[in-house]
Amino acid sequence: MPQIHPTAIVMPGATLADDVVIGPYCVIGEHVVLGAGVSLKSHVVIDGRTTIGEATRIFPFASIGLETQDLKYAGEPSSLEIGHDNTIREHVTINPGTEGGGMVTRLGNHCLLMVGAHVAHDCQIGDHVILVNNATLGGHVVIEDYAILGGLSAVHQFVRIGRHAMIGGMSGVERDVIPYGLVMGDRARLTGLNIIGMQRRGFSKGEIQGLRSAYQCLFSDDGTFNDRVNEAAGRFAGIGPVDDLIAFIRADSSRAICQPKGPNGT
Q1: Tens of pLDDT, residues 217-257
Q2: Contact, 26 vs 32, CB < 8 A?
Q3: Does the 3-140 domain belong in CATH 2.160.10.10?
Q4: Partners of residue 161 on adjacent β-strands
Q5: Alpha helices (H) along the chain
Q6: Is 139 noted as a catalytic residue in this protein?
Q7: Could you say which architecture CATH assigns to the domain 198-250?
Q8: Choosing from 23, 35, 48, 139, which is the catalytic residue?
Q9: Which of 47, 70, 122, 244 is catalytic?
Q10: pTM for the whole thing?
């Protein structure tokens, strides 16, 4: 049977795996589903149509699945899906989806959300993502696998952040961040590639060098940006990280691509 502290409140209808551990003063709503090995330390509130995958740990004062802050939300039966082996630290807030964004917010597997991180309605977060303390996502943000968001960073609604990208602390991100990109600044600009992250994750020297060359081609001053994208796609086809980069740039988006500062600082 699940281990439920006497001070915790679990509403009838909640579905708990046999080895779930629910600590003191937690409150679990009637539509919540907790998978095998889920552990709630204490004072955790989980509500709404929320599903949490196995071996996920949630720390005190996290607020998961409660009504979104989107003023357009009208009570529609939207949901929140959280994968397995995640760590959700103190005071994290994660909101469910809305009718205007597909009705579901998703968090992948093996993610770490540090103290005070916020995931707004309809966000789609991949695997192995890290949100450092007080990182904040607006609605409809897409974050791909292995991205890292520094402390106190803020991401504008509808922005996409590519796989293996890194956002510097205290950055304000208003534009899409390319895969493997490194951005920083109060209005974030692209400052290079996350080479150290790529090395740590086992990318080959050839892949890294190919991506560097493609980056230099894409953000040179020659021709239009579209011309440079087509040139990089042709010259570096078949190099995995470059293929990721080109596909990301060519995908539909409501936001522009975050670019380096120009020679005049703009």
Answers
A1: 999 999 999 999 999 999 999 999 999 999 999 999 999 99
A2: no
A3: yes
A4: 143, 177
A5: 195-200, 205-218, 225-235, 240-250
A6: yes
A7: Up-down Bundle (1.20)
A8: 139
A9: 122
A10: 0.97
